[in-house]
Every structure is written in structure tokens, then in C-alpha cells.
């Protein structure tokens, strides 16, 4: 459901959705990564010089997951699969794509996907690879590791999520990459990095009691530094609203365009509940310095659409795949700014009714950095 439809429900209903008594799952405890056959390393990967590279660094390929039926009605499932395929086919014009698919869905996937997309078969609950897929780290020796953060269905909202909790390990096994289990719940969409030691996130998500109850902010920072190889963590109070599912993921609100350069969604409309949220975010960002001591250059992208969040784009080799509403008045301004921010990339707009209803292009993709 897009922002417009959420807000039609009224603020009281939106608040009720956000505060629903979802199953209280703090840690996705008992994840048996070993069952996938992946090689396990039980210490922080930063100890070996590993860090999570910026998204604009060269990729070997992109990982995605073909939507299974669990959390979709039949009509929505067909639409979602077409949206996912449109993104995969667009990315495949720039770099290889590996699509995870359940064996029973492979025939349908082949009908929708470019012949250049390859497959890996395993069971899934859903298809949001940014959140359940592997965050792949690199070091100066040209090696790769997976940061094994736990996935708990966005705070236990969509059980069962047992297979999605294993998705990062199954991908890692397929790719032949070792995994470092982390004692912390984290979805990939909750963080953004500049590749030079700075990480951006929101308190609304990472300090939420449905993710890591009992962990202090300082403890979470220690784990982020150990498992993502970052040095400086910038905390924004909240992500965009309404967001009763991801609880304020940063990838709907902000993204690094280069070290020291940050794109930030802003709105000027008084009836938009994001007015205060975005201005508070800008205030924080104007006052902080990044890991290199730089003052951030902030580039505003207007929050023009009630149907899609343009910020949820994906940077691949030579391209930026951007979700759009398909309406010039809503898309032209944000697209022009993104083109200016990435002058060496081709900007590819993609519409998707069902994709926009749950997240965006960034939410369904996960990069494999080249080494």
C-alpha cells in the first residue's frame, strides 16, 4: 500500500497499524545457518579488515528473490512478479543478475525474466533481498565475507519467516562466501554507507523494541562497527511516515551519492506528516561530520509523489534504476536531481504498482561487490 492509501485511512488508523500487537520477536533466535552448509566464522569481520563497500563501487552481480505466494494474494502476486521482473531485466542490461526462486515457481519466472538472468533454487517466505539477503563485505586482499545479521520479519510482523532468515546463508553458500553470524537483528534497508567509514541509520528502526530489545545504542554501534567495518554512525530520529512495516528504514529517505554527499528527501507541504521529520533530519545532518571529518553536502530531493518514493533507487554498474510514479509532474524534478548527482550513470525510471506498495527498487535488490 502506498503513502496516499495509508493516509486515506486517517492518522488514527495509521497509528494503530504501527502500534499493532505484532509478535514480540527481538532476536531471530535459533537461526541455524550451519544447516545451509555455509562456512561459518565466529568473530567480527572487521577484525580481518572487512567493510561494507558503497553501492556505487563495481558489482560482480545483483541478487534478487522471485516473489513466492506466502504474503501475496493471487492478483497481487502476479502483479508483484511482473514488477520484480521489470527491475531484474533493467538491472541485467548493466550487470549479471542472480534470481533466487522456489522450484515450483521457476517456470513462471523464466517466462517473465530475461534469458540473461540466472537462477538459484531455494525456499523463501518473501522477496525483499535488501533486507533478508546477504550484506557482502570486502577487504584490501580482494576477499569477500557476509555480515550475518539476523532477520526477524521486520519485528515479527510476517510469520513464518524461517526461510527468509536463512536467505543470506543460502546465497553465501551458493557464492562460496563465508558468513560471520551477528548477535543483532538488522535489515539492509535500515543502513546506508559511504564506503569511507560513515554509516547512516534511524533510531526509529534500530532502537525499536521489536528488533533488539535489551541492547543499548552503544552496544548496537559496537556491533555495526565490528560487522560492517564503519567508524562513524550518524543517527536520524525517524524515517519517512507512514511506515508501519519497516519502522523507518533509511533507504526511503536518504542515500549517499558519493563520500561526503548525501541525497535527502524533503517536503514543504504543511499537510504532509513528513514535513517535521525531514526538517529534523536535515538539522541533524547539517551539524554532524562524517568519518573523515567532512561537513556533509546535502542535496534535497523533493518528496513529490504520494505513490512512490524516488529515493529508493538502486545503483548498479553504469546505471541507477529509479522507482517512478509515471506522472511527469511528480517524477521530473526528482529524476533531474538524481541525474545531476550521478552524471556518469544512465538513469532508468521504472514504474511498479505492487512494488511501490511495499517498498521500492532498492528494497528488492542486493549487490555482490566485485573483487
Description:
- With 371 residues, this protein is α/β, with parallel strands linked by helices.
- The protein has a single domain, classed as 5-stranded Propeller (L-arginine/glycine Amidinotransferase, Chain A), CATH 3.75.10.
- Helices cover 30% and strands 22% of the residues.
- The strands form five sheets. The protein has a four-stranded mixed β-sheet with strand order 3-2-1-16, with helices on one face. Strands 4-5-6 form a three-stranded mixed β-sheet, with helices on both faces.
- The longest helix has 18 residues, at 74-91.
- The chain is globular, with a radius of gyration of 19 Å.
- The model is unreliable at 1-29 (pLDDT under 50).
The name of the CATH architecture is: 5-stranded Propeller
Nearest-integer average pLDDT: 92
Which CATH top level class fits?
Alpha Beta
Question: What's the helix-strand series?
Answer: HHEHEHEHEEHHHEEEHHEEEHEEEHEHE
CATH topology: the name is: L-arginine/glycine Amidinotransferase, Chain A
The class by helix and strand makeup works out as alpha/beta
Strand content: 15-25%
Number of domains: 1
Helix content: 25-40%
What is the distance, rounded to the nearest whole angstrom, between the alpha carbons of the first and last residues? 38 Å
Poorly predicted runs are: 1-29
Q: Give a count of the beta strands, DSSP E runs of length 2 or more.
A: 16
Strand order of the largest sheet: 3-2-1-16
Sketch the major β-sheet.
4 strands, mixed
Instruction: List the total number of helices.
Output: 13
